[in-house]
């Protein structure tokens, strides 16, 4: 840390500063302070106030980011100060290593309205504006501290406050999904699709998990529709996902054409937002209960037995539209949200606005017995992955999604 070197002795006129050393202030030695005003010689659009300094009125700039009081050699002449204390204090401009040239300091009585305080004032060479520090401004009641009740929630805070939201797979209250099935389409009972013996134990484990969670049950009685299964490895996990190949069954299931927001609509809606959170619903479709009269078309075969779904499953052709519309309707009265598939995006133009919306959404999900996946949730950020990368400044496609376009080889044939 560099220190300011005291000035040399010189004779001055009566009303000028005497630079001769009177004392050396050891308490301020080796100290460093910040001044937030970027150019102390050029200040505009910053609040100013007249303060009595030893009964002389001086104009001060209120700088809440400054830790020191500053006055110039030109202004200090008005105070008829004959002697200054030498200082080894270093004062830096905001975001800079530039030092102000100090010539000393003095103690003065500051009076504003009926408040009087004793403070130290540093003297800087030149004719700069006088600066009042944050602490001095607060003591003179020129500024007031206001602590917001909108405490910024972290992921841990959310999990502690909404414990039920992070436990298992939910089941949306008061809603059942009825599939619109065309009974004129003849049922198809597909042959059982066999798979490697070494996968059987994992399939059995997954079936047991789904059965315990109330997602599937053994199919009993007449089974007009039977679909085969496909075994898929879960990403980064030593587990299997059971996917039902419902291509034949989907021929009889009528689609529900609910609108999904486009990327342009999403970007337009998010205009001006600065704070974001994303909630991922845990095994999204499985949180919606199927109507009893719709379950029969979801029967699938395994090496153990025939099973059918009690919840909406991923193989149904209209599942995405049904789920999108269900969540949209559930949260329709809350502003500042977007839902796309199993993701719910919360956004706000301010932290307070965002936090209010976040709590509304979490309360609604909890009251409706829905659950979320904490590993895929993101809270309180200015940049988020949602249909691409979104921040308070821009939107850009995710590199992994745009890589295929960039790496696409130029066609060498016309056909």
TrEMBL record:
Region called Disordered, residue ranges: 1-30
Signal peptide extent: none
Location of the Reverse transcriptase domain: 213-391
GO biological processes: DNA biosynthetic process; proteolysis
InterPro entries: Aspartic_peptidase_AS, DNA/RNA_pol_sf, Peptidase_aspartic_dom_sf, Retrovirus_Pol_polyprotein, Rev_trsase/Diguanyl_cyclase, RT_dom
Domain of life: Eukaryota
Protein name, per record: Retrovirus-related Pol polyprotein from transposon 297-like Protein
Species annotation: Tribolium castaneum
